[in-house]
Design brief:
The chain is an alpha/beta fold. It has one domain: Rossmann fold (3-Layer(aba) Sandwich). It is about 50% helix and about 15% strand. It has seven helices and five strands. Strands 3-2-1-4-5 form a five-stranded parallel beta sheet, sandwiched between helices. Helix 1 packs across helix 3 and helix 4 runs parallel beside helix 5. The longest helix has 13 residues. The two termini are about 15 Å apart.
């Protein structure tokens, strides 16, 4: 499955730790991430990552494009609620598209862990059926 990982600046260390802790699950899937987050994940967890541009340079738009084409199966977007108090249209587009296309989305650590464990159990295999029907 294709998993997108995005983290606001204050959540990058948390994302790195998540990837280290769940490396055994993530290694079985294709990982996509915005530029800086992707580089940090590669360095700390040795996971291969398909990197978009940095989020503010168009990476979130690249992710939104993949989401709208149903090419992403799971999104973990660790958001800093203080940093996201201003309207960020690219972020909102990703979240809206995930909802529109029924793509599982975690915006905090607790939900991210639940989704990764569900992914490992096969609970998200229904995404393969969705992609085949398109």
């Amino acid at each position: 499955m294709n998993i997108a990982l995005v983290a606001n600046d204050n959540k990058k260390t948390l994302m790195e730790n998540l990837c280290i802790a769940y490396r055994h699950i993530l290694i079985k899937h294709d990982i996509f991430a915005t530029g800086t987050t992707g580089s940090l994940i590669e360095e700390t967890s040795s996971l291969p990552v398909h990197k978009y541009l940095a989020g503010d340079l168009g990476g979130e738009q690249q992710l939104a494009s993949q989401v709208s084409n149903n090419e992403i199966d799971l999104i973990i977007f660790l958001r800093d609620s203080d940093a996201t108090s201003k309207i960020d249209y690219n972020t909102e587009a990703v979240l809206r598209l995930a909802n529109d296309h029924n793509i599982p989305l975690a915006t905090n650590l607790a939900t991210a862990e639940v989704l990764l464990l569900a992914l490992d159990r096969g609970d998200l295999d229904w995404r393969n059926l969705v992609k085949e029907s398109m």
